Amino acid sequence: MPKQIAGNSLTTAEVSLVKALVREGGRSNQDILAFFSRPGRSINQGRIAEITKGRRYATVPAASPGELRAFLSRWPEHDLVTGLHPVDDELVVKAREAMLNAIGGYNNPRTLFRSECFIVLAVIAWTYLLHWYYRRLGVDYRSRKDDGSLLTTAHGAQKHWELETCLRAPECPLDDAVKTNLRFLIAIRHEVEHQMTRKIDDALSAKVQACALNFNAALKQLCGPRCSLDRGVTIAIQLAGIEREQRNMLLRDMDLPPSLLAAQAAFERDLPEEVARDDRYAWRVMMVQRNTNSKGAADEVVTFVKPGSELDGEIQRVLVKELERRKYRPSQIVAAVQAAGYPDFGQYQHTLLVKELKAKDPKKPFGAFVDIQHKEWWWYQAWLDEVLHHCGENPARYGATPTV
User: Fold this and answer.
1) Using an 8 Å Cβ cutoff, are 282 and 188 in contact?
2) What is the pLDDT of residues 224-281, one digit of tens each?
3) Does 321 have pLDDT greater than 80?
4) What sign for the dihedral angle of Cα 244, 246, 249, 253?
5) Same domain, 113 and 220
6) Is the torsion defined by CA of 250, 304, 211, 270 positive or negative?
7) Residue-wise over 376-402: b if at least 16 C-beta within 10 A, else e?
8) Domain identity same for 106 and 216
9) Proportion of the chain above pLDDT 90, given as a percent
10) What are phi and psi of 358, to 5 degrees?
11) Dihedral over alpha carbons 372, 378, 382, 383 (to 10 degrees)
């Protein structure tokens, strides 16, 4: 998990302001301390005395009268919930706002490009948060040319690290699974830039959900629990249910750009298994409609089941029974039939039988596509049973040895 940075110390800019307040006179050390303390940030009052007597920060100059007036004119402007200041904590404020807009847009039923918009805003949110973190550490996150000179915009503004560079920095506080999730979304963003994409939300939803949860966890770890998003964001209301057959049809008809499918496949091909299964890379849940006889729990829309609990075990048993039916490749069907005593039943005979019985009709319980590109079909046990029954009725056709 990200490591928390202590926030109970004065920055250099604040030390300058303390010295300016002392120079101005008329305030006690306790009064000066009040300008820099707030819920979630407790400054030791001894720091003010040390600055006043010159025992600490002797080389830091006092702020100018104009800087002091600007500071006093905007104080107090701290957010009562988070304790953040819109100027002093600008990067964190912007990071939170970008992610809240990303989540709000994604949950908006009128949004057509929800995944694309979420990714763009989420990248901005993470970039601001990591810039804030590196600034607190004293890391120079300005972009430079190969010769070491600073990169600037056309009008002279300094450029700073993009998110990909932030993730590569040795000081990056994020775990591998979190960084992998972000690199995946960045790769998808590069693929969907300036082109029409349709129906990608189902394909990316687990990564998008993980990204939002990871950001909230990082905010709490790095900036404190008061800065979290979970107190202001609730569960999105669901208006429509999806049957398994509907979802299979959606996956077949997603019409995703080949470049997007290729990007996803290339990114995940060599992922370590522990990262691919990590909830911080892709957050997956099962939704089950629930009735309850408990009055206290009657208004809970979502119940989280503890892994390893008795209820979790029962759910997994039902899931395995319902969804994880064994599937056979066509070659395995042929091999099983030949092993059952029908040596003349080969791939060609299997293909003819599939066409004859229209076995790939989605309404029949014989098999399913196993990829969203609608190219690879595997067979259930019901089809193997059907083929064996057919061969049993036509033994001579498939070279069965007569039994005496």
Assistant:
1) no
2) 887 888 766 666 655 555 455 544 444 444 455 555 556 666 676 677 777 777 777 7
3) no
4) negative
5) yes
6) negative
7) ebbbbeebbebbbebbeeeeeebebee
8) yes
9) 31
10) 50, 50
11) 130
Q: For residue 269, with 0-12 CB atoms within 10 Å meaning exposed, 13-18 middle and 19 or more buried, which class applies? A: exposed
Q: Which amino acid is at 294?
A: S
Same domain flag for 236 and 382: no
368: helix, strand or coil: strand
Query: Amino acid identity of 244?
Result: R
Contact between 200 and 115 (Cβ < 8 Å):
yes
Which residue matches tokens 């990007």?
263
Domain span including residue 135 = 90-269
Asked if residue 134 belongs to a domain, the reply is yes
Distance CA 307, CA 323 (A): 19
Structure tokens at 38: 């707030």
Asked if 161 contacts 143 with a C-beta cutoff of 8 angstroms, the reply is yes
Rounded CA separation 1/4 (Å): 9
Q: Does the pTM of the predicted model rise above 0.70?
A: no
- Burial of residue 115, with CB atoms counted within 10 A of its CB: 0-12 exposed, 13-18 middle, 19 or more buried: buried
Alpha-carbon Rg for the chain, nearest whole angstrom, is: 30
Whether residue 239 sits in one domain with residue 95: yes
Average pLDDT over the chain, rounded to whole? 79
At position 139, the amino acid (one-letter code) is V
CA distance 278 to 386: 39
Give 85's contacts (C-beta < 8 A, 6+ positions apart): 77, 78, 79, 93
Question: Tokens for 5?
Answer: 């940075």
Q: Are 398 and 342 in contact (CB under 8 A)?
A: yes
- 149/125 Cα distance (integer angstroms): 27
Residue 368 phi/psi, 5° resolution?
-165, 155
User: Long-range contacts for 67-72 (Cβ within 8 Å, ≥24 apart)?
Assistant: 67/16, 67/17, 67/20, 68/17, 68/20, 68/21, 68/24, 71/17, 71/35
Same domain membership, residue 239 and residue 149:
yes
Q: Residue 246: is it exposed, middle or buried by C-beta count within 10 angstroms (0-12/13-18/19+)?
A: exposed
Length of the chain equals 404
